[in-house]
Amino acid sequence: MLEWRRRREPSKTMLYLSPLIAIGLTMLTGMLVFGAIGFDGLRAVTAIFITPLIEPQRWADLGVKAAPLIMIALGLAIGFRANVWNIGAEGQYVMGAIAGTGVALLTHDMTGWWILPAMALAGILGGAAWAALPALLKVRLQVSEILTSLMLTYVAVQFLYYLVRGPWKDPDGFNFPQTKMFSGSQTLPAVAEGSLVHFGVPLAILLALIAWFVMSKTVAGYAVRVVGRAPAAARHGGFDASRVTWATLLAGGGLAGLAGLFEAAGPFGQLTPQFPVGYGFTAIIVAFLGRLSPPGIVFGALVLAVTYVGGEIAQSTVRLPSAATGMFQALLLFFLLATDVLVRYRLAWKARPARSAP
Amino acid sequence: MTQPPDQTAPSRLALAHVSKSFPGVKANQDISLSVRPGEIHALLGENGAGKSTLVKIIYGVQRADEGQISFDGRPVEIASPKAARKLGIGMVFQHFSLFDGMTVLENIALGLDESVPAEELKARIKAILDSYSLPLDPDREVHTLSVGERQRIEIVRCLLQKPKLLIMDEPTSVLTPQEVERLFETLRQIAREGCSILYISHKLHEIKALCEAATILRAGRVVATCDPRTETTQHMAELMIGAELKHLQRPTSSKQGAARLSVERLDMPGEPPFGTSLKGISFSAHAGEILGIAGVAGNGQAELLLALSGEHLAGRADAIQLDGRPIGLADAGARRAAGLACVPEERNGHAAVPDFSLAENVVLTARHRLPLAPSGLIRQGPVERYAGEVIARFDVRTTGPAALAGSLSGGNLQKFIMGREIGQRPDVLVVAQPTWGVDAGAAAAIRQALVDLAAQGSAIVVISQDLDELLELSDRLCVINEGRLSPARPVAGLKLEEIGLLMGGVHGESHQAESAHA
Amino acid sequence: MTAAILVSIFMTLAAAATPILLAALGELVTEKAGVLNLGVEGMMLCGAVAGFAVTYSTGSVPLGLLAATLAGVAAAMIFALLTLGLGSNQVATGLALTIFGIGASSLIGAGFVGRTITRLGPLFPADYAAHPWLRLVFGHDAIVYLSLALVLAVSLFLRRTKAGLILRAVGENADSAHAIGYRVLAIRTAATAFGGALAGLGGAYFSLALTPMWADRLTAGRGWIALALVVFAAWKPGRLLAGAYLFGAVATFELQAKAAGWSFIAPEVLAMTPYLATIVVLTMMSLGGRTGGRDAPACLGKPFPAS
Question: With an 8 Å Cβ cutoff, are A232 and B349 in contact?
């Protein structure tokens, strides 16, 4: 019989291999499940996981969808490393967009290079402010950031609804609940003429590089890692867990806020009730798929972007319901967590059992 | 005195050729031993010799890979602790298997296999407490009890099942000398009533005082069986360690220098829910001196170490002074930079991060005094060089600076941690339980390193529950009890009994102990 | 007629409190065994959609409730397999379970959007509850009575029975429980399954009793509020009951204010109240010195065996 044997040290190979195994298992399970409920399972899985990669005209869309996921997941991963479970990135993303849009509405009749940076700054501050409340409650009163950050997500979404249906409704919008369209100085420029790929995409890669450098080469990054792994050792080494909690939540909120503003000033060009698309939650999967490391997160965001783009393809080609994408993403996270066991354990044939008594 | 055990009856417990392996370790190899009815049998061996694994097999917590166990002459298979209890085997664990937030009664009920109504159970507990004259209140919550009282819970829990074999795993490591004597009386009474006792220890004088037979383990194998009443301690120690005992090299001239660390009226509330408060702690440690702090576990040692290291801050700056400078309000990093280094008791997760490499663990506490990360950037080269130096100088058995701290054995990790601090040449080193769970070779090396550091003019404070170690190492000794520290006394000429009384005598009868103080 | 209005307000309140009470009570038992399952929302959604699908297909509400309970258990078993079997991180796995529940319910429910069923009605015949005050006693549906009985049962189980003592012991100190010979993982799995069953049932209360119609993400974060409620209740079933009905009052206020057409409060602001109230309550608990630290089971969320 097979049994699990604990490895003496975690396996480096499995650390990198297990996400790939998880992706493989997700595809296999997806194929079987969707086959069983009456879809063409093979075509569905191909459409979701393969088509977006082999059709060059989809690549721009992949980049656009991956960029916010990278930014949010970077911030979340830094927090998760420190055992700070900010799961309200969706709310911070929405508040970042709202704060940036506030600036956009104030500067609607102006032009200038400074408007977009001002919106970005507002986005960062909006997201960070929304993460500051969980940080304050966690540090001062030991209230679980898991619950507060999530509750604030619902509040942020309702606040968005209130704004677009009320004070920020476009007076020339035929009573649709949406803000004015952003002006040229308020819209994220494309990296090349006529391309869908906006400036946020290369910036997301740059941010991943910076995050990698900070986490692996600096004392600040060390502080985050040690506070998460061994809080008592961190205190012994002179690191302040409260400061790390503050820093990681503010960084996570700021990055989510920036991602929200880029989404508003990029693909959306305005705020509507459809704005919260769940990137803040999907980014949790991205963070784990990327093993909480910045280079891994870029890869993970790409995989999840593939499922988004592929999910749209599958809707039109095999008539898969749009909810199927969410299922695939959840399955991926399950398999990822399950295959994690391979890093710490290995499968081996069971040793001879103890000689039994007659 | 115990009755001579019945020579004709079959062995109460007999092991034949028992082996057990874990990844990378053969914990037990071909072990055979037998315990007669009513016999107190010692299982002797140093840390890591395989004693704990063996008793876990006997108590059904783990399964042997090979070998056979007989009980009262019949071959048995012990699949679980429940099966062991059914046979009549009871066990008192080294780290008690108790539930702090529950009452004594609930704890005992959890250890019984049948369901007994609370009132009836109380009566049965009372009967046992009376017949062995053990004081214990069944309605108290465990966290309010002393370590000795907690041990009594485990003993009562076993005795309720009317055991035929009682396993005691290192039962005295947490008791005062008086409590040890008291425990021995109880054990002798239990043995007189016909119950066998398997007594696990590495303390030779205890085994000589209590046991009638001994099986000595080394590196997972039986190396000898003997009668400890007639064998010399020296010889048993050499069998246990497998080499001749090395004696500590102490400098001949031990003249005391100026006070380097001074603590004055240090108060600190204990951490809820179960912490001990420090009350008016005052002492000083001088250049070239080793000051020992003795005491039973849980009397404020952990809190004292945290207060000295800066992990908990004292209320006043002048409560702690380093070479005359007040540092009571400085944080852990600032204190280390100023020359005060601390090594806490718990290696994994406190002194070191198990899933970090040794090199990364160097950054944890050495970055203040060594130029490892100036301006916030970690310099990989110097970090690895320093880790390599520590490994070489302190003979740490490992694959190199990239090895994970958690992959090292307890002794090797402790040598690495001590080396990491000593290599920074601290002016004052405070260390808790420096050789806890460490094999004899590593323990000797660590003690020698402490003596050498003191000889170079540093002041050293050793907080330990191991009285033998403190008496060997220290120049002066004080005792911590319920958060209060006794005045320091020169070790030369100090009697064990006096220390025992300072440690609180027999807990659970605190009024007696207090009158002894007066 | 004020009596009738008050009674009807209380009926709404009890209905709003019941699903959260059920889910929180299940989670309380799970947490008492030392398992932190953050997937309550996901399990509720699995229950909600399974209950609706079965009731819609068979026309039977009891069958739907049974299916919901089983669906909750099944979802909880995924969690148990990962965290207890394979030792994965409980927080991450709980989040995964919620994401899974949202995806699965949305996928299965896609075919049912807008379909209606006959709702679960009062347990007792209408003439028992003819008088408004009697309605308070006899006017509820079976699940409301069941939830109250379960609070009592769980409370007695935890405090008075040997099995309850063992469950608490496993949550208090898993290593000790293992050393004495209790099967920690089996007990934790059972507690997790119980949590899943009640979460599934609570979820189905949304789709079978509160609304007769299926809608995506029907539970709207109530699973998270249930988690907060366990902290608020300091892991005590009696306090949980009080907390759930307090929450029911907040939700009823939101409904009443909307129905009354108060124009000076935006409906979006009213919709925020349950979430804001949760944060306020958690904060006040901490300010009052009743932080989770002291009341929480000592091994909550810690893996066994320790990794």
Answer: yes
pLDDT confidence tier of residue B20, bands split at 50, 70 and 90: very high
Whether A254 is covered by a domain: the verdict is: yes
B272 and C298 within 8 Å at the Cβ level: the answer is no
Tokens standing for B403? 């090895």
Residue B7 has pLDDT above 80, yes or no: no
Q: Which residues of A touch C93 (CB under 8 A)?
A: 337
Q: Measure the CA angle with vertex B91, ends B134 and B186; round to 5°.
A: 30
Judged by CB atoms closer than 8 Å, whether chains meet at A141 and C291 is answered as yes
B193-210 in b/e form (b: 16+ CB < 10 A) is: eebbbbbbbbbbebbbeb
A93-123 pLDDT tens trace = 999 999 999 999 999 999 889 999 999 999 9
Of C114 and C16, the one with more pLDDT = C16
Query: CA nearest B347 in A: which residue?
Result: A233
Tell which of B85, B94, B110 to mutate to test the C interface (max C CBs under 10 Å). B110
* CA–CA dist A45, C88 (Å, integer): 27
Return the pLDDT at B518.
Answer: 34
Class of domain B259-517: alpha beta
E-state strands within C5-95: none
Backbone CA torsion sign across C28, C33, C38, C39:
negative
- Please check whether residue A192 lies inside any domain of the structure: yes
Would you tell me how many other CB atoms lie within 10 Å of the CB of residue A183?
15
State ipTM: 0.89
Would an 8 Å CB–CB cutoff place B61 in contact with chain C? yes
Q: Which residues of C touch B272 (CB under 8 A)?
A: 293-294
pLDDT tens digits for range C273-286: 999 999 998 898 88
Q: How far apart, in whole angstroms, are the C-alpha atoms of residue B25 and residue B219?
A: 10
Give me the CATH topology for the region B13-241.
Rossmann fold (3.40.50)
Q: What percent of chain C is modeled with pLDDT above 90?
A: 63
Residue B255: its pLDDT value, please? 63
Looking at beta carbons, which residues of chain A come within 8 Å of C107? 321, 323-324, 326-327
Out of A6, A7, A238, the one facing B333 most closely (by C-beta) is: A238
Q: Is residue A8 part of a domain?
A: no
Q: Which chains touch A (3 or more CB pairs under 8 A)?
A: B, C
Evaluate whether C13 touches C248 at the Cβ level (below 8 Å): yes
Give the contacts of B123 (CB within 8 A, at least 6 positions apart): none
Residue C291 confidence (pLDDT): 47
Domain of residue A126 covers 30-346
Determine the pLDDT at residue B271. 78
A325 falls within a domain: yes
The fold for domain C2-295 equals: ABC transporter involved in vitamin B12 uptake, BtuC (1.10.3470)
Partners of residue C99 in chain A, C-beta under 8 Å: 281, 284-285, 326, 329-330, 333
pLDDT at B516: 39
Which ranges of chain A have pLDDT less than 50?
353-358
Phi, then psi, of C72 in degrees rounded to 5: -60, -40
Going A73 to A79 to A85 to A88, the CA torsion angle's sign is negative
| Antiparallel, parallel or unpaired: β B196-201 and B165-169 | parallel
pLDDT 10s digits, C148-188: 999 999 999 999 999 999 999 999 999 999 988 899 999 99
> With an 8 Å Cβ cutoff, is B85 touching chain C?
yes
Q: How many structural domains compose chain A?
A: 1
Domain map (residue ranges) of chain B: 13-241, 259-517
Q: Residue A184: which CATH number? A: 1.10.3470
How close is the nearest chain B Cα to the Cα of A218, in Å? 4
Angstrom distance (rounded) from CA A89 to CA B464:
48
From the list B372, B232, B469, A140, the residue with the least C-alpha distance to C287 is A140
